[in-house]
């Protein structure tokens, strides 16, 4: 698989450097064992991994001195000639490079100096930042801010300081008394005792009861309230492990290490930030002491009850939480005590304000009306017409606005039309209130017709069901009265008669319809006994009663059905039973002359058809080609509407007068043999037709002369006739497969079928293919003949069989020698794609023969099917190309062969008693026999 | 256009059998080179599609996912995708590297005989025996084709695509050329069912073989017949044909187990290369070198010119 490897190299991505290829005969080197691997520094000296710090005392050469020769002071200068000036040697001179490196004991890297080491940090801001960092989407995003701290304090700080404010204190008037609860955290150690008296809490702590009067305290610093919403699933106030706490801790450490002065106060303030700062790394009650932590006193934190409130009461003012709870006490206190006793000092040039700032005025929110509901509901939109003006008025009144003069409409009440009017745009086709107005006159008419038809149908249905109901219930005495008054009521409303003339529930029975109409007229006139007048006197009483009821119901129903039904149903978007069908405008014209041209090898104009063809826009885009017809919505070949049942859609007859140099674009009468919805005419038509050119074309010309102008122009009656005639035909074609099983099953196929199948010969092939031609064609044939005979009123139920009978070509597999000669080249048009070769992968050798046989067999199968009308015929009949597809499928060989044969077996099993084995055996010996 | 020079042509024809590969996928329905000719695809009747290095004879990957035999395949210009069509009526777009099915288009009503990418591999054009050509967008999830060309009256046996044209040969005996730029459809009548089509590399001509054992060279613009090539046997099967790498020769399969080479201009038979017993089903010519792949039965064979020396000892 070396080849594979080397080959697969090409499309593999490799990382790293490969090993060098081995020399011829060279042994692969043994890898150096781990203990023998060494690390050297840049000077080639071994590096040691032992020692106190990095490198430790690897200062010398192999733990001795700096060179191989021993320790030699490199800068020895004899003091005899030039006195060595006393160079001041610093400790660095005796240090190794390692010590000066980043991780050495005296790193030379840039470090923050004291100025920057956040002694003067704004701790409130820092706290805020910590909070932000903890809750920020990217934890530690504020890290940079921490590293780069401004060295200078802001002016406000300076001013406050000058006024006596100290870090850690709150801003505001001093308070007399520290609340007892606010003890410093017992966990915090307190260093030093020289606390500034003003801000000390220590004294208070020593003796709770003793509170000197003259001592005031600064208010406690305010912790910014954290308003971040809780978006996790932890318990309240719980924070998960946050590794960034360690980072903040380091900054706190800095503060502690280098700012001894502020330590005391910060401790006393007992804020969380510093607490954390004291303890490096992750802290928490559940965690032990990390390796980096210096203090281990607080591992098992002791909970003291003094941390908790034991009494429910209002919070003390100035406890740092006023931002949150805003206790009234505090507010009132602030308002009452106007003398802000600030910490004594007032800056030069400043004085206390004599009058306080006018407090901000707060406007209350508007009051909601009592009956306000916070839900909006939309009022029905009513277009102003004469009938519903009243309703409209009511609505608008209820909406709280009186009907307004259109001129005074505000901007928001304008609709698009009015706006357009104001803007001076050209109005859109009047004020089209209905889609109908956009339609063309013709379409409108058609829609009208359709509507009428559907109305009629629905009404008929309903009438029938109602009549049935009525007849079932008519024995009850009250029903006729009911019917009476109901129809009278309905008619009395006056709506029924408006379109009654359109409504023909009894159209099938013209007499009855007439009577019904008469009845309607009478009713309209207001005659009470209208019904009696118009009923047929010759009818029996029962019939009369029945009809009376029917009429009443119909009249009543029409009123309701017309409005309700029509509002519920929409008309089909596509008319499914129009008499028109789309047919490509240009047809590839007849192949006869082309064939001769091909025979004469006169390729070129004679054999070429050129059509206008519209590619899809997307197709053009994908091909990177500009759309050749940018403003056409058409796709494919241009199409025209043709009469659906025109013979010319189905015929593929040659134009007898066709000149040899016709082109599709020429204005010759087009051949209507283009693809139809149901089936595509195939070359079979042409070949077939060529075959029997004289007979059919003669026939056709005859027919044409009879009909005169082309069918499209023929009178509607003829068309209708055609239609009627064709419908059963097509029905029959469809039905054929339904009843085919009954036809085909039961009887064992005659022997000549098997002969036809298994006795293969070349002439037979031709005949079979021809037969198939006929087969695939015969539906069309049927059509043609049907149309021709339609004028002669032939019973069309039998057309197809007639077609068979009258067709001299297909029925028998017996070859027609002359025809065979004729179709010899045609045969290559075979229904199949040229078979897929290599019939059998496993038995590669007798490929072609098998293929051929297969094909023959297939054909015969087709033939057989055709004749026996097996269920497979369905496909065959419905779609010519489907049958072809089948053929092709069957032409598949090798792997498909088994399925095919089983296929055929199953086919035959339906009709014959042949065992599959037998069949298989026969199939197998086919090639031999053939040779 | 590189019309044949007067210099000896013989050695240029691939007549030396370089390699025989037993594909092991049933009958090989089609063999196709990829865009640069380094690899080839074989479509097997056992529902698989295989990617080979034909010179080395190594199997690179097997693509399975068709529900029936694979009838044709093509590779995209960037070698990233393959498309194939088969008896299961599906057109499948494959990812070359992963071997997975990217899209499966099931719009045809019959076997898909032929598939082809357009120039930028944004479309797959597939010809089916349902007599339609589907243009499927490779990148869209629309199950229906961008456009269906259903002008043919019978099964499509072959589709070829150039930068602005689609050439389709149909069993109804016509070659249709859809010119997207002009917005026109040219339909040339040949008469006999067409088994394959081929653009010449200069884009001037189309090669059209048909079941009357004739190959015709048709002028694209006028539909005239500059050349006709006969001598081989092709009466039943859908056989491939192609032009040699510099349009000097016409190459066609034959049902008598040979591959025929004709001089394109003179129309004379240059070589009939015997392959063995059976039908040569499919062939493919290397885009730049005189290298021919033929498929017969379950094997493919790689042919090079006489002077060719295999690189290294690989394979």
TrEMBL record, chain A:
Residues 1-41, 169-214, 568-596, 654-931 are annotated as: Disordered. Residues 850-887, 922-931 have a biased composition (Basic residues). InterPro entries: DUF1604, G_patch_dom. GO terms for molecular function: RNA binding. GO terms for biological process: mRNA processing. Residues 582-593, 669-695 have a biased composition (Basic and acidic residues). It comes from the Eukaryota. Residues 788-803 have a biased composition (Polar residues). One of its GO terms (cellular component) is catalytic step 2 spliceosome. Residues 895-904 have a biased composition (Low complexity). Residues 1-12, 202-211, 769-784 have a biased composition (Acidic residues). Residues 152-172 form the G-patch domain. Pfam families: DUF1604, G-patch, HTH_TGH. Belongs to the GPATCH1 family. This is G-patch domain containing 1.
TrEMBL record, chain B:
GO terms for cellular component: catalytic step 2 spliceosome; cytoplasm. Its main location: cytoplasm. Interacts with EGLN3/PHD3. Interacts with ERK signaling proteins MAP2K1/MEK1, MAP2K2/MEK2, LAMTOR3, ARAF/Raf-1, MAPK1/ERK2 and MAPK3/ERK1. Identified in the spliceosome C complex. Interacts with PARD6B and CRB3. Interacts strongly with GTP-bound RRAGA but not with inactive GDP-bound. Interacts with p62/SQSTM1. Keywords: Cytoplasm, Repeat, WD repeat. It comes from the Eukaryota. WD repeats lie at residues 21-62, 63-104, 105-136. The keyword Cell cycle does not apply. It comes from Sciurus vulgaris. It is found in: Cytoplasm. This is WD repeat domain-containing protein 83. The keyword Repeat applies. Belongs to the WD repeat MORG1 family. Pfam families: WD40. The lineage of its organism: Eukaryota, Metazoa, Chordata, Craniata, Vertebrata. One of its GO terms (biological process) is mRNA splicing, via spliceosome.
């Amino acid at each position: 698989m070396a080849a594979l490897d080397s080959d697969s190299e090409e499309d593999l991505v490799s990382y790293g450097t490969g090993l060098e290829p081995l020399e011829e005969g060279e042994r692969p080197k043994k890898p150096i064992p781990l203990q023998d691997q060494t690390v050297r520094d840049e000077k080639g000296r071994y590096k040691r991994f032992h020692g106190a710090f990095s490198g430790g005392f690897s200062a010398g050469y192999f733990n001795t001195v700096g060179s191989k020769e021993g320790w030699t002071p490199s800068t020895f200068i004899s003091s005899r000639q030039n006195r060595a000036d006393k160079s001041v040697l610093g400790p660095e001179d005796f240090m190794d490079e390692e010590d000066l490196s980043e991780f050495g004991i005296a790193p030379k890297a840039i470090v923050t100096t004291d100025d920057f080491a956040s002694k003067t940090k704004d701790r409130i801001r820092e706290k805020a930042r910590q909070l932000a960092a903890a809750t920020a989407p990217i934890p530690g995003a504020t890290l940079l801010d921490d590293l780069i701290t401004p060295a200078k304090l802001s002016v406000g700080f300076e001013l406050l300081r000058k006024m006596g404010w100290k870090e850690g204190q709150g801003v505001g008037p001093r308070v007399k008394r520290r609340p007892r609860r606010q003890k410093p955290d017992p966990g915090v150690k307190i260093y030093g005792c020289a606390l500034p008296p003003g801000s000390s809490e220590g004294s208070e702590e020593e003796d709770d009861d003793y509170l000197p009067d003259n001592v005031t305290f600064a208010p406690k610093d305010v912790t910014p309230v954290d308003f971040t919403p809780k978006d996790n699933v932890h318990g309240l106030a719980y924070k998960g492990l946050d590794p960034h706490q360690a980072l903040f801790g380091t900054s706190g450490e800095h503060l502690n290490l280098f700012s001894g002065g502020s330590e005391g106060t910060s401790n006393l303030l007992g804020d969380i930030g510093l607490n954390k700062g004291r303890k490096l790394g992750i802290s928490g009650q559940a965690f032990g002491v990390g390796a980096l932590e210096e203090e281990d006193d607080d591992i098992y934190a002791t909970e003291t009850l003094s941390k908790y409130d034991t009494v429910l009461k209002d919070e003390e003012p100035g406890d740092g939480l006023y931002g949150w709870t805003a206790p009234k006490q505090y507010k009132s206190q602030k308002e009452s005590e106007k003398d802000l006793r600030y910490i004594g000092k007032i800056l030069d040039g400043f004085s206390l304000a004599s009058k306080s700032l006018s407090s901000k005025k707060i406007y209350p929110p508007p009051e909601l009306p009592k009956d306000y509901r916070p839900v909006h509901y939309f009022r029905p939109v009513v277009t102003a017409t004469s009938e519903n003006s009243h309703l409209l008025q009511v609505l608008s009144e209820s909406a709280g606005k009186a009907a307004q003069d259109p001129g005074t409409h505000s901007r928001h009440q304008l609709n698009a039309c009015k706006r357009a009017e104001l803007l001076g745009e050209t109005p859109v086709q009047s004020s089209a209130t209905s889609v109908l107005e956009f339609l063309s006159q013709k379409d409108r008419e058609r829609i009208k017709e359709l509507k009428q038809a559907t109305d009629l149908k629905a009404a008929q249905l309903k009438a029938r069901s109602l009549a049935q109901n009525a007849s079932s219930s008519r024995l009850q005495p009250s029903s006729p009265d009911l019917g009476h008054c109901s129809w009278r009521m309905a008619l009395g409303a006056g709506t029924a008669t408006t379109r009654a003339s359109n409504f023909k529930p009894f159209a099938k029975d013209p007499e009855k319809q007439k009577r019904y109409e008469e009845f309607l007229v009478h009713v309209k006139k207001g005659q009470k006994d209208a019904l009696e007048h118009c009923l047929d006197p010759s009818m029996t009483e029962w019939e009369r009663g029945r009809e009376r009821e029917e009429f009443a119901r119909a009249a009543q129903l029409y009123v309701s059905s017309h409005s309700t039904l029509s509002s519920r149903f929409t008309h089909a978007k596509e008319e499914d039973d129009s008499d028109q069908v789309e047919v490509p405008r240009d047809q590839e014209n007849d192949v006869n002359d082309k064939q001769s041209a091909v025979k004469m090898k006169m390729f070129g104009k004679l054999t070429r058809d050129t059509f206008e063809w519209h590619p899809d826009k997307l197709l053009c885009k994908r091909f990177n080609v500009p759309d050749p017809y940018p403003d056409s919505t058409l796709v494919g070949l241009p199409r025209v509407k043709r009469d659906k049942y025109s013979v010319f859609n189905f015929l593929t007859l040659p134009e007898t007068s066709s000149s040899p140099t016709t082109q599709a674009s020429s204005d010759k009468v087009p051949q209507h043999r283009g693809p139809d919805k149901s089936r595509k005419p195939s070359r079979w038509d042409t070949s077939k037709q060529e075959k029997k050119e004289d007979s059919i074309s003669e026939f056709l010309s005859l027919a044409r002369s009879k009909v005169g102008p082309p069918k499209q122009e023929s009178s509607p009656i003829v068309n209708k006739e055609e239609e009627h005639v064709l419908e059963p035909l097509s029905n029959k074609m469809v039905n054929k497969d339904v009843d085919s099983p009954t036809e085909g099953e039961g009887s064992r196929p005659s022997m000549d079928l098997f002969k036809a199948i298994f006795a293969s010969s070349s002439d037979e092939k031709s005949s079979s293919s021809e037969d198939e031609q006929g087969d695939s064609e015969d539906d069309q044939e049927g059509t043609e003949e049907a149309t021709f005979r339609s004028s002669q009123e032939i019973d069309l139920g039998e057309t197809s069989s007639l077609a068979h009978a009258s067709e001299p070509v297909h029925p028998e597999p017996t070859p027609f020698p002359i025809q065979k000669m004729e179709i010899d080249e045609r045969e290559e048009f075979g229904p199949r794609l040229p078979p897929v070769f290599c019939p059998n992968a496993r038995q590669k050798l007798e490929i072609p023969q098998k293929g051929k046989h297969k094909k023959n067999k297939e054909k015969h199968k087709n033939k057989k099917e055709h004749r026996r009308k097996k269920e497979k015929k369905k496909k065959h009949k419905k779609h010519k190309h489907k049958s072809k597809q089948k053929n092709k499928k069957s032409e598949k060989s090798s792997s498909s062969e088994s399925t095919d044969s089983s296929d055929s077996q199953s086919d035959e099993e339906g009709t014959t008693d042949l065992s599959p084995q037998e069949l298989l055996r026969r199939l197998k010996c086919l090639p031999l026999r053939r040779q | 256009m590189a019309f044949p020079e007067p210099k000896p042509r013989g050695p240029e024809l691939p007549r030396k059998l370089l390699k025989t590969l037993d594909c092991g996928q049933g009958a090989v329905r089609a063999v196709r080179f990829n865009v640069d000719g380094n690899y080839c695809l074989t479509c097997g009747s056992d529902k698989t599609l295989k990617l080979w290095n034909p010179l080395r004879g190594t199997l690179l990957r097997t693509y399975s996912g068709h529900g029936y035999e694979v009838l044709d395949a093509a590779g995209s210009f960037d070698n990233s995708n393959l498309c194939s069509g088969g008896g299961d009526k599906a057109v499948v777009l494959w990812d070359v590297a992963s071997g997975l099915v990217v899209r499966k288009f099931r719009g045809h009503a019959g076997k898909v005989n032929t598939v082809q990418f357009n120039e930028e591999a944004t479309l797959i054009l597939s010809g089916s025996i349902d007599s339609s050509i589907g243009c499927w967008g490779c990148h869209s999830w629309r199950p229906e084709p961008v456009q269906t060309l259903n002008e043919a009256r019978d099964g499509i046996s072959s589709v070829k695509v150039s930068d602005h044209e689609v050439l389709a040969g149909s069993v109804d005996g016509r070659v249709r050329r859809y010119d997207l730029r002009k917005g026109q459809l040219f339909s040339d009548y040949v008469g006999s069912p067409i088994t394959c089509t081929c653009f010449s590399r200069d884009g001037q001509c189309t090669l059209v073989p048909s079941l009357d054992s004739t190959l015709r060279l048709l002028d694209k613009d006028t539909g005239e017949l500059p050349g006709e090539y006969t001598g081989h046997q092709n009466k039943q099967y859908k056989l491939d044909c192609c032009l040699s790498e510099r349009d000097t020769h016409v190459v066609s399969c034959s049902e008598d187990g040979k591959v025929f080479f004709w001089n394109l201009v003179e129309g004379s038979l240059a070589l009939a290369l015997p392959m063995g017993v059976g039908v040569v089903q499919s062939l493919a010519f290397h885009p730049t070198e005189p290298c021919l792949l033929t498929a017969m039965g379950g094997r493919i064979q790689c042919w090079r010119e006489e002077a060719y020396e295999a690189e290294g000892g690989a394979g």
